[in-house]
Write a structure and sequence with these properties.
Two copies of one chain form a homodimer. The first copy, chain A, is of the alpha+beta class. Chain A has helices spanning 5-20, 31-39, 68-86, 102-110, 164-173, 213-229, 272-287, 303-315, 321-333; strands spanning 50-54, 58-62, 88-96, 114-120, 141-145, 153-157, 182-183, 189-190, 201-202, 257-265. In chain A, strands 1-2-3-10-4-5-6 form a seven-stranded mixed β-sheet. In chain A, strands 8-7-9 form a three-stranded antiparallel β-sheet, with no helix packed on it. In chain A, a hairpin with a 5-residue loop joins strand 7 and strand 8. In chain A, helix 3 runs parallel beside helix 4. Chain A is globular. At the A-B interface, strand 2, strand 3, strand 6, helix 6 and helix 7 of A face strand 2, strand 3, strand 6, helix 6 and helix 7 of B.
Chain lengths: 340, 340
């Protein structure tokens, strides 16, 4: 596509890390989508990514319409350099594209004994509480904390009740979804996973007003405001769609999509070994909790992804046939050797 | 109780602001609880609140067992001073007590054209996904953003499906609560609001695994780790109970309860007037959204509290008889003129 070697390696690393961690929806399965956006000239493969505004510990980065997969690590690097010097660093990003899994970026900080934060807005698919319109993306937020003898605690979550990937699985299998995931075009409760394609919407975390969907809406709004209103990116219904067959809104309110990343040095608050010893204790206490079903333990945030990573590093990444075929079509297009 | 005049005024301001904003559960109704904790020598009314560790933009504050109502504003002041100088400021707090509404503290930053953050851990009432134990508090988080012609956007939410206050109302009225708010002592689904008092637990935002309760658990864990593992306060099931008739755990893992507050200068990212103009636009777009029920508009985060404040500033704060009686008992105890 014209990315330089460094950007190519970095983007591939972000996608592969997602597959390794079991988040198949955000890995190489997305490569086709990025290529289509590039074909529509919506991704700049030679971006001049730069800081356009800053203080000692804050900055706004313009991604120059580059791949979010390379723009977000640039921003995280800026945040970490500021944190190394001043204790914390915070970077809002505009004029970017889909950045892959939030966890990748937050974990960059964890490797340096920092607490990592990463969030992004995304194409509008989610209706705020009481709304019949799709005004927000699944707007994920991620917080990552370094532990001692245990792997890091990683809270990496869409702020919708269900991620779009789960809906796609139900669509493929022809299964109904639980009430509380989506509504139809009129805003009625539905269990039909295809409702999203006919004008319906995903619901915020909490699902309905009685169960706190205004909180899911509030979290999603927080991600949107930090990522885009603060950076100068598009927000709410103006966020450009990820799918290339839908054009971006004709009346943008900013540039591209937005991210917000940050890092705080653990030793800006207490000695790293003390923090890690207590986080280990926290993990042990929660893992050893009595449970409703003795066969189902409490899952520490990030644990399923770590288990997938341990397994897939040894046994490889299983690809569904459709994705393998897509990759081979791309290989042919770009003159790369296909997978056998 | 022995608080100095400045602390007394500040604590009263936090409580009254809560009542003004319609959050009756966190206002003067709590005064009795604070007094009881003081009688048990669990609140120090002459605390030496101080910074015990810091960098340019991070700090840990020890509240010396003071009222959270005065400890948290001290911490927020430290965060704002750091933000004024370096762009952002972040303060973890240990050895504190219940800090009232998170929104009060976050709004201190908004008044200075900063984005405000405030969170706190709390007495264990919430069971993580799959757990039958109460290991987390309702652990609220608050994000507050200054707007232009509109009031600030304030996301101030417990990370449980329902706040404890809502349960107490159902208990008082003898009403059942919706499925998804609580479980009984064995972890079974129940609609009996009294189940919490017989060993049951509140559920995380998302209510069950199918609807993303692991996300609510993850958010609550984030609040607990930032507020307590980072500061050196008690976390998880070790957080001392707010009610004075329950003793704190005999094996503390830290000091008191913990908070985490922060501030970022808007102009650390983009000019304040640009940010406010776009946040106004964001608010207008969401307020004008098509809705499922034409009589129920989309509610901007913070709007209900602002409406209550506008009303109660004019019409006064209605007190339920029980609270009014409690206040008069306290008035008598401390030789203050009772309300008529």
């Amino acid at each position: 596509m014209g990315c330089n070697a460094e950007h190519s390696r970095l983007a591939a690393d972000v996608l592969l890390r997602s597959d390794l961690r079991g988040i198949d929806s955000h890995g190489v399965a997305r490569l086709k989508g990025y290529v289509r956006l590039w074909e529509k000239k919506r991704i700049n493969t030679s971006p001049d990514i730069k800081i356009v505004h800053q203080t000692a510990t804050t900055a706004t980065v313009d991604g120059d319409a580059g791949l979010g997969l390379v723009v977000a690590p640039f921003a995280m690097q800026v945040a970490m350099e500021k944190a190394a010097q001043y204790g914390s660093g915070w970077v809002a990003v505009r004029n970017s594209n889909h950045f892959g899994i939030a966890g990748y970026h937050a974990l960059m900080a964890v490797e340096k004994d920092m607490i990592g934060f990463a969030m992004t807005n995304a194409s509008p698919l989610v209706a705020p509480t009481y709304s019949s319109e799709r005004l927000l993306g699944t707007n994920p937020m991620c917080y990552a904390f370094p532990a001692g003898k245990y792997p890091p605690v990683i809270v990496d979550m869409a702020t919708s009740a269900a991620a779009n990937g789960k809906l796609e699985i139900a669509q493929r299998l022809g299964k109904q979804v639980p009430e509380g995931w989506i509504q139809d075009a009129a805003g009625n409760i539905t269990t039909d996973p295809h409702a999203l394609k006919s004008g319906g919407a995903l619901l915020p975390l909490g699902s309905d007003a009685d169960h706190g969907s205004h909180k899911g809406f509030g979290l999603s709004a927080t991600v949107d405001i930090l990522s885009a209103v603060l950076s100068g990116a598009n927000y709410g219904p103006w966020v450009p769609p990820f799918v290339a067959f839908l054009d971006p809104p004709a009346d943008p309110v900013g540039s591209g999509i937005g991210h917000f990343v940050g890092a705080m040095r653990v030793d800006g608050f207490r000695p790293v070994d003390e923090f890690k010893a207590h986080l280990d204790n926290w993990i042990e206490r929660f893992k050893s909790s009595a449970t409703v079903d003795p066969n189902q333990k409490v899952i520490i945030p990030g644990e399923p992804e770590l288990e997938a990573e341990a397994d897939r590093k040894v046994n490889g990444i299983p690809l569904v046939e459709e994705v393998a075929n897509d990759l081979n079509v791309l290989a042919e297009k770009f003159g790369v050797e296909p997978m056998s």
